[in-house]
Amino acid sequence: MEKKSKFFIFLIGIAGSLGGIYTAKFPITQHRSPEARQVLAEVDVSASVGYAPVAYTLFGYTSSLALVKLEGVGVSEETHARSDGYFEFTNFYAPRNSNEFCLTPIDTDQLVGTPLCIVAPVDVQGKRFGPYLLSPTISVATGNPQTGQSDAVSGKTIPGTLVTINTFDDPDRQTLALVPHAYAARSKKITATSNADGSFSTQITAEQSGKIRVFAQSVFESQKTPKSNTLTLTIFSAWFTAFMLMLGLLRNLINWNIIILLQVSVLLFILYKRIHMHHVYRHKQRALLLRRQNLPMIEPERELVKINRT
User: Fold this and answer.
1) Nearest to residue 198, comparing CAs of 66, 68, 88?
2) What is the pTM of this model?
């Protein structure tokens, strides 16, 4: 029995050796057509690459010396723009499974623009893509001017470009008006030109109380940049501003201890009035009761009985 088992194992070893020799001399792919060999080769290459990153270049324009951040799935890069606003991400590596990237500008005043999200290029090893124009940054001086006054609006964008500041007025609604009014947001455009560093500024006059929404957009080589962030200005009327000033003065003049003392005094006065009124009410009830007890008694009428005397 043991001899038969050893002989059977010996035969299996010989068969395996012969199969390996045949496979080495006559590969399986040699029996396939050229088209099948090409498909197998492409499958082998794609399997070896998988999600290997690809390298390419993105470039564009923003304000002078601004910080530009590039963020996406598996990607986090940043670079600084040149003095003319040109920026470039050179041969950065991005994974193939990234669907989009977002470019965000941050100017030298630390103002952040709106992100520009773009579709990630596919199979573009070593190529350049652009130019990508980034949005302006914007800020206001106060944000709550009075009616008839002006507020400064400033920001930064691509140097030497035409900037359009768009405003939309939303006036207050007069709820006590006898005649109903139709309200509609009024739009207005103010143009300016950015300086060598990309900065721009203008003045917005508040004609009436309400709100003003404002954003900026520039034009570079006949192409518009994305819109900036939208800011809201709140305009107060003159009487409301005067009331707020008087309230602030009262807050500064009156000490908190005095306010607490006044509150305690008011509470004591209310308590005294309640106790006093209760005492007066009970005194009146007692006087009325005594008066009722001292009233004369009125006897009911009796019938006269006639007595006959005999």
Assistant:
1) 66
2) 0.60
CATH number of 54-133: 2.60.40.10
What 3-state DSSP class applies to 88? strand
User: What six digits make up the tokens of 108?
Assistant: 């030298």
Rounded Cα distance between 259 and 266, Å, is 11
Return the domain boundaries, the chain.
Answer: 20-50, 54-133, 138-236, 239-280
Establish whether domains 54-133 and 138-236 are of one fold.
yes
Question: Into which CATH architecture does domain 138-236 fall?
Answer: Sandwich (2.60)
Helix (H, G, I), strand (E, B) or coil at 49: helix
Exposure of 200 in the CB half-sphere (CA atoms within 13 A): 25
Is residue 110 within 8 Å of residue 69, measured between CB atoms?
no
For the stretch 182-218, pLDDT in tens is: 444 578 999 999 999 999 999 988 777 888 999 999 9
> What single letter denotes the amino acid at residue 222?
S
In the prediction, which pLDDT does 142 show?
Answer: 87
pLDDT of residue 36: 43
The mean pLDDT value for 49-65 works out to 80
CA distance 260 to 244: 22
Report the 10 Å Cβ neighbour count for 74. Answer: 12
